[in-house]
Amino acid sequence: MKKYILPDMTWPEIKEALKTASIAIVPVGAQEQHGYHIAEGCDSYRAKEFSALLAEKCFPKVVVTPTINFGVSPHHMDFPGTISLRPDTFIALLEDVVSSLKQHGLKKFLFINAHGGNSAPLGVAAETLARRYNVEIAHTKFVDASKKTLSKEIDSKYFGHACEREISECLYLAPGIVRKDLIEKGDMNDDAFALKYMKSDFVKVVYQFNEITNNGNIGDGTKGSYELGEKIIQEALTNIAEFIEDFSSTNR
Amino acid sequence: MKKYILPDMTWPEIKEALKTASIAIVPVGAQEQHGYHIAEGCDSYRAKEFSALLAEKCFPKVVVTPTINFGVSPHHMDFPGTISLRPDTFIALLEDVVSSLKQHGLKKFLFINAHGGNSAPLGVAAETLARRYNVEIAHTKFVDASKKTLSKEIDSKYFGHACEREISECLYLAPGIVRKDLIEKGDMNDDAFALKYMKSDFVKVVYQFNEITNNGNIGDGTKGSYELGEKIIQEALTNIAEFIEDFSSTNR
Amino acid sequence: MKKYILPDMTWPEIKEALKTASIAIVPVGAQEQHGYHIAEGCDSYRAKEFSALLAEKCFPKVVVTPTINFGVSPHHMDFPGTISLRPDTFIALLEDVVSSLKQHGLKKFLFINAHGGNSAPLGVAAETLARRYNVEIAHTKFVDASKKTLSKEIDSKYFGHACEREISECLYLAPGIVRKDLIEKGDMNDDAFALKYMKSDFVKVVYQFNEITNNGNIGDGTKGSYELGEKIIQEALTNIAEFIEDFSSTNR
Amino acid sequence: MKKYILPDMTWPEIKEALKTASIAIVPVGAQEQHGYHIAEGCDSYRAKEFSALLAEKCFPKVVVTPTINFGVSPHHMDFPGTISLRPDTFIALLEDVVSSLKQHGLKKFLFINAHGGNSAPLGVAAETLARRYNVEIAHTKFVDASKKTLSKEIDSKYFGHACEREISECLYLAPGIVRKDLIEKGDMNDDAFALKYMKSDFVKVVYQFNEITNNGNIGDGTKGSYELGEKIIQEALTNIAEFIEDFSSTNR
Amino acid sequence: MKKYILPDMTWPEIKEALKTASIAIVPVGAQEQHGYHIAEGCDSYRAKEFSALLAEKCFPKVVVTPTINFGVSPHHMDFPGTISLRPDTFIALLEDVVSSLKQHGLKKFLFINAHGGNSAPLGVAAETLARRYNVEIAHTKFVDASKKTLSKEIDSKYFGHACEREISECLYLAPGIVRKDLIEKGDMNDDAFALKYMKSDFVKVVYQFNEITNNGNIGDGTKGSYELGEKIIQEALTNIAEFIEDFSSTNR
Amino acid sequence: MKKYILPDMTWPEIKEALKTASIAIVPVGAQEQHGYHIAEGCDSYRAKEFSALLAEKCFPKVVVTPTINFGVSPHHMDFPGTISLRPDTFIALLEDVVSSLKQHGLKKFLFINAHGGNSAPLGVAAETLARRYNVEIAHTKFVDASKKTLSKEIDSKYFGHACEREISECLYLAPGIVRKDLIEKGDMNDDAFALKYMKSDFVKVVYQFNEITNNGNIGDGTKGSYELGEKIIQEALTNIAEFIEDFSSTNR
What we know:
homohexamer; alpha/beta
């Protein structure tokens, strides 16, 4: 056994693992439309697979919980199949994961998030739960740890959902959920008010995704590739593993 | 495509599927100790795999949601690795699944449950949500649909958790999570008050699982087999598929 | 004083009683239609009177709280007069009873339930509160403790609500709420989908009571009698008193 | 039948009653210490019996729900046997009563309250529920409707709990819960800060009842009598019946 | 610095102040219509300014928190601009103020309330929070501490909202929010059912303010004056300061 | 009247204003330590004053609500005087503001936020409330609209709390809360784990402010000035006013 994935371990194995592992990694996904070319479990698959790679890399310092298969996705509800949790439900779910594992002795948590819509509720969850349970919590939207690759390799004006970045990640992490013959560019509504402020650096506007794109994706998926996915994921793995090294050894 | 598994489908595929599918199957599992011989994701794996088989059998009348990977398992919290949701969290999660899919036109739900501790909260969820959202909801602890096989093939006085029945199901549905070389009988505390009333037909007593068993399992796992698993699962599939046939055609 | 009924005692009397009584009995009823022949307080009256008999039989080991006069009865809401608590309200009410009495030193609770619709929320309440308040909780739908009599004396295909069993109980416990001149059989909708699955041993379907019966009752009330009521209640009293004996002496 | 008490009626009888009755009376009590001389169900018994008399007087314009057997009594928790609801629980319970009866066509509610500690939460409940359910709600601490008698007949400096007023009411409404041989004056802590501000007309101070009295009652119970009880109750009945006349005929 | 107003102090200044100050004053206002002649912040301004005067008078025994700028005002929602908190929100807000300051060592709280609609929820908040956080809480609708002046100086049959009393207070405390050229009498609906019971001493009826007045005020504002305001406020200051003296020195 | 500030207006004035104003500006502050040199109401004062300037600039298109005087500040709780709302309370408060004003016809909301700790809960509030109430919501941490000035004028490695930026804003907006004679640099804990990740662009770590600074501030307040404040505020006003122009005219 080279990685500690809790749902795949028995309780005596977990008991043993907790002698070295001090951090619980919680993969946080979503069930949400990703255009014509990625299946809706995209974020859950990416969170789960990325966490597994991270667990291998950081063995034996971390354990991985079951994946949170649902996220906060109200902006995608106009597309069939999307399931969105209320923020309260999402936070309660994370609370129960944290409080349960605290009882088993874990005091450090890293939420590995694959979906932008989860970021604000994750922020609320982290701030609240760390203090309520007297534990340390960190969270990352993991592709944010791949800044160099993204700035060098991607030049679409708008990207970040079912785009070349995400297709590449999927081709590397979970190729079965990509419809390779259907990959296409985002069919954008260029004049949309929401699109204008989507990337604003000072104001955030609530919008529905179908205000800005007709097919549900943005960017240019045709530029995605396994190779780009590998670069993105490996850079993120390196940076987050480095953080984990630091996080596991600090004693606040 | 022979079965409709929502996280593995794109939104246009789901849109198409909803033309024939009228029932959403929701696999409901748990992260919970199952002795020395089954990994803790046992109930989630069984719920997921059983639901997939059911979806094939009932194609194209049902769709399957992502698996609920966590259940209500406070009675197992004394064993490392168990994660237990508060009933409120569990019900809220099911509510968001139901309310989201209702928005996409689904009005019938079948919760496929693999964990006894989920039954009471599922009952509350079903009664509440069916009326709140004006939908039809049914739920089953799926092995209950295998009464004939169980009464004929199993003779342990106490069984129902990490026992010959559950090991057999796993060998058939998810063999990778069984530790075949570690299978053993339940190490029961024969005099426990909790054990005496565990199977009472008139009174229910709240207890912790380690009151009744030291290794976390009950029954006699050494009697489990792939063949027994096949019989259990196939009988349950037949009975539940028959119910689905009825459920999908009724119009209340 | 031969029984300890808390609303009928002063605080110094209660203080004295708690020197021997270690179990709080909580009678749990409902306000809910029971056909043309039983008044709607049926379940509350039965829970209250049964608990009083039990308190006499188990004197001085138990005290009885005021009756919970409302239950979870959404399936009866189509009949005038039914009042249904949301499960959250019902559980909160039980929580406050438990937490208050815990402050007075009581650590064992037995919920005496008279209404099937309360069972799932009672299960959730028991599991949650026992752990939250570090107390022992058991619960029983008390007629379940009368299995022998029921299997020997009742032969209606469907029974369990405003039927010969319940009329008999009322004639024994609270005859004033029976309209003897109006007793009749259930006017069943024989083809109802809900009726088909009402007694399923593997799937539970949410339904409204008026889907299965037009007059609100099932079974054959005309077969009810004081004598049958006496048998049912006495068997249940014996079995539950025996449990109380065990429950009061165990020290987990 | 001269009064409409819902738990004592069948659904067809209730259906008939609702042709003339437009107001639901909800008796609101408490389980709470009342000194050495009144049993703890005092407020519940008074609320129930007063409501029944009112229902007779106002027949056929009102129906009476089952009694709310628990109130908000944290200030009495230091005395054995008291059970106190959290205000949230109390309000939720009233909400479910109101929302259920609204479904049966009732649009006017009068809460008949017997316990001062319920007044603030009843105020919150009334204001909230009237608007949430678009119904009319009024509430009364019913002895407040007996101002003339009280000002003429009672001269204790402090009264209002297990005092001559309350004993008199009990002797008239529910004599069985009075311990006549144990009636005594309040054993007051004359210097208590809480006592000084208990009757302030401008500031309300949170206190525990045992700060101000050692035996749990105040006033001078020895001055209570059946005759005084009759005067108090009859004046209150007259005034509240007059209000009901007005309330039932107004159409806002 | 002659008064301790927390939002106007730095943390080292507050640290110093807490050496002598043992009571936190919390000004509680509302955003709510007050007729043609007072701006809607009326209650917030009055609560804030009164608290500041009180803090000067009771220096250095009290600190003043930021003002609660919103209250519970559903009965005024038919007039533009009114903002009403749900009671749960209002109580939660007070809870967070209390629990935060408890962490800084404060154990006594006095809510200075300027709005009648806040009284019931304040009562619930005080009773609940005092016990939950083991602190002492008192609350006052501060004009209630001016009984002598009010009974001597005001003779309108109905007063208490945007009337001569409130205009006078504003002229003394916050003259900028009075529209002196628009002061007028309440334009009452004399026959309203709500008006009849508005001042009942035994029954409380839920009503909307526009049922009883067309312009939003009652009483006779033209009789208001700075001088009357001074009398009202000074009497209230004297009485409440006296209570504070007592409250700060008591040690329960 | 050149700006519409709701607490300073009567209901007929507000009724008139709502003929032209379509956006409600909600100033969102905090009560929170800001070192030795700024009073704790800093964020509330800045939010309020900035909103007033914005209201003048955008007259007559916007109205301003009363200020939210408390924010989400758990990370500052180790410094005396800080009051922190739970995120649920904070969101509930915003919900009641939005739902109340929606009833008066307002359908567009702009939250003007002055405190970084409010950002995640504001994000949750905006996403949730916009959909629940079918309104448009945008929110800004207003200094983010001053990017040019900040990048040109500020060169401290760490800034953002009680630093030169914030002191400058205060000197411009609310000079009375600055202790000019006490301005000092942040007394940083250079080796703190929390400090290392405070500005991470990929991982967020929950920390307490006193982990990173001993005096409660960061940056170099001595570089602050009225002139810098003017530049910051004017740039932000220009950018946000431009957004308001767009927001008020769009019709989604």
